[in-house]
Amino acid sequence: MPRYLLPAILFLLSVQYSFAQKLTVIDAHDSRPVKDVAVYNDSKTKFGYTDLAGEFSIDAFGGKDYLNFQHPSYEPLRLTRKQVEDHDFVVLLLYKTFKIDEFVVSASRWEENKDEVPNKITQLRKPQINFVNPQTAADLLASSDEVYVQKSQLGGGSPMIRGFATNRVLLVVDGVRMNNAIFREGNIQNVISLDPNIIESTEVIFGPGSIVYGSDALGGVMNFNTQKALLSTSEKINVKVEVLGRTSTANKEKTGHVNFNVGGNKIAFLSSVTFSTFDDLKMGNIHHPGYVRPEYVRQVSGRDSIFINPDPNIQVQSGYAQYNFTEKLRFQPTDKLNVVFANHISRSSDVPRYDRLIEYSGGKLKYGDWYYGPQKWMMNNVNMDWKPGYRFFDGMKLVLARQDFGESRHNRKLDNPVIKEQYEKVVAWSANLDFEKELGNKLIYYGIEAVHNKIKSEAEEWDTMLELSSPGAPRYPDGKNNYLSMAAYSGLKLNFSGKFIVNTGLRYNYTSLHSTIEDNSYYNFPFTSIDISNGALTGSLGLVLLPDNNTRINLNLGSGFRAPNLDDAGKVFDSEPGNVVVPNPDLKPEYAYNADFGVARDLWDVLQLELTGFVTLLNNAMVRREFSFDGLDSIMYGGEMSKVLAIVNSGRALVYGTHASIELIPCRYLRLKSNINYTRGQDQDGIPLRHVSPLYGSGHIIYERKKFKSDLYLVYNGELSYDELAPSEQAKSIIYATDGNGNPYSPSWFTLNLKTSYQLGTFGILNAGVENLLNHRYRPYSSGIVAPGRNFILSLRVYI
């Protein structure tokens, strides 16, 4: 291509684009441009956002089209194109103090007003995500101040919701369930496979979501919606490029991100790439000297050597790297049909298992190596949204997906040349077909779902001195492992004059697990196959009362279930020092019965209060308990005598708690808000449940005016005493502080933090912040790694 040709093409495109008819959205109070305003027609087939200058092209909108304007901080507005033209293409938005109804959400897989949903829902949208500027998707969830996140290592993040975690909460990405048949009862880190820089919005639905989402959604559903490929809203090609660079000091983070969008009237393409490296994490230096890292193991000339850590606040062997790719192709031939083809790829480097690397045995560090191999995730999916307005349905959604998961574990005892390596691969296929039909004040939605997982588990032992490998004991049965789930559901929403809304639904789910053991020489199990099949019927009834424009009252009753997966019924692993978990082929599903009650109220246009209480009864709960293996209560595992444990159905468990929040706007540019979360849970024997978080909350002072925004905030956690810890946590003395009686406990802590952003005209946004200003040394409950000390963050986001 001649050198002059590309500049000429770019010039012509810019000239063509300059003739596009644009409107400008401004704040009615101070006349500043408002960015990130959603602009769309009534059918949402024409959709886009205002840019940093508050501008948006409306060439695609006809004279009879209505333009809807929505932004979280402003009153919604609906205008015809002619009305926009009559006002010289300038749209004024009125700033709103509080309004209970917000953007539509996906609690039923269909868009609906939040104030018509009986569940408690927390939303994080793109402008807030960009301001929070999180390192990982786990940090994004933690920024909601309503999801507790545990970390066993820096490359991790396990969300806890209402006393449930791991395989009792559901991850959903663009309508596809991410949970698979080896999601474990212990802490899982799969959420960090998601790239926070490409997430458009996150919705956390609290309480059982089994009616729409099936098994595993006991504590709640975390629904991630990634960025859309945007079509052109004019006759010209829509080209957008976003570049992000970010660094932080606590782990010497270096993150680079770029995404670009090319859109025509019917076809659009989006591509995104993110690469991050994180060095060893540095903790604070105030409080809890027992958390420091005084020494570490490193091999020198093939032999383990113990080194004194020159800076005990640096958590040596915690760093890792990760990259993410996202590609989307969107095809919208008509206003009624939209098809999206997407590919997501995530891969990490080796991730050190920090909480194992700090274990001691006989006065010496126990392990020479303990790390996860690269965590791999790839998802290919097709999403089709069709709105033909037929007799039996107005809209139909079809989601087909294939996911490939790969993970491995590698550990070697100190001075032992043999490293044990276990590998797992999962191929997960899923299909969802959903329909909705509106009949007057009734909305009927229904659908079917099919999920199939194929799991392969292998292991070997590698002698690093002799450079020889031998077969090893796999984590799961080494034969055929298949998990199948099939379901049908239906729901009904009745809206009585916009004041009283009734939501109800039923779902039937059939699940089966088939697993075979080909080589039984490792453990000599008294069985060679596992076959578990179950059916489950769940239901819900929700009521929403809107007595006036400032009050919302909701009551939600619902049930959920979780069918045993391969990790529950078939794994063998050392859960903590001196314990080994063995398979149990006799597991049954567990059921959750939940009641929610919530009240939200606006007072005097400057104060908003919200209170939610819940109670969940878990029946036939799957919990880890003492077990016997071939008549023995202890066996040799990994070279040491270990007590036998297994996942068993153990009667009932009760979880209850409350969430309260308050927000005050004393003046136009200042916002004060605070929230608190309290959860407690125990089984029928009074034993505390493992994933019940301590009391936690936050307080924020937010100032926003024109191009500048700042948030000075406090995050705090209460204490969990030794008696309040689950037995499995009491055994992990290495990660907890020691009380006056010499027992482990989780201390209370707080941090003071500051984040700011400044809009650089239409060029970009500069973010800066300081986390843990007081440099406290603390470890969040159940976490293996100590939290960052004083952490300076700087990022620049550029729009082209």
Low-confidence stretches: 1-18
Helix content, binned percent:
under 10%
Intertermini distance? 23 Å
Question: If you average the pLDDT, what whole number results?
Answer: 89
Could you characterize what this model shows?
- The protein is mainly beta and 800 residues long.
- It is 6% helix and 54% strand.
- It is built from 8 helices and 53 strands.
- The strands form 10 sheets. The protein has a 22-stranded antiparallel barrel.
- The longest helix is centred in the N-terminal third of the chain and has 14 residues, at 5-18.
- The protein is globular and about 80 Å long.
- 42% of the residues are buried.
- Residues 1-18 have low confidence and may be disordered.
In short:
This protein has 800 residues and is mainly beta. Helix content is 6%, strand content 54%.
Quickly list its features.
800 residues, 22-stranded antiparallel β-barrel, five-stranded mixed β-sheet, 53 strands, 6% helix, disordered N terminus
Topology:
Blueprint: H1 5-18, E1 22-27, E2 38-40, E3 47-49, E4 55-57, E5 66-71, E6 74-80, H2 81-86, E7 90-93, E8 121-125, H3 126-132, H4 137-142, E9 148-150, E10 158-161, E11 164-165, E12 169-173, E13 176-177, E14 199-206, H5 210-213, E15 220-226, E16 238-248, E17 253-263, E18 267-278, E19 281-282, E20 295-300, E21 303-308, E22 314-315, E23 320-334, E24 337-348, E25 351-352, H6 354-357, E26 360-361, E27 364-365, E28 367-372, E29 376-386, E30 395-413, E31 418-439, E32 442-463, E33 468-471, E34 481-496, E35 500-516, E36 529-545, E37 551-562, H7 566-570, E38 573-576, E39 579-582, E40 590-603, E41 607-619, E42 622-626, E43 634-637, E44 640-649, E45 652-667, E46 670-683, E47 696-705, E48 708-717, H8 727-730, E49 737-738, E50 744-745, E51 749-760, E52 764-771, E53 791-799
Parallel strand pairs: 1-7, 12-15, 39-44
Antiparallel strand pairs: 1-4, 2-3, 2-5, 5-6, 8-14, 9-10, 10-11, 12-13, 14-15, 16-17, 16-53, 17-18, 18-23, 19-22, 20-21, 23-24, 24-29, 25-28, 26-27, 28-30, 29-30, 30-31, 31-32, 32-33, 32-34, 34-35, 35-36, 36-37, 37-40, 38-39, 40-41, 41-45, 42-44, 43-44, 45-46, 46-47, 47-48, 48-51, 49-50, 51-52, ...
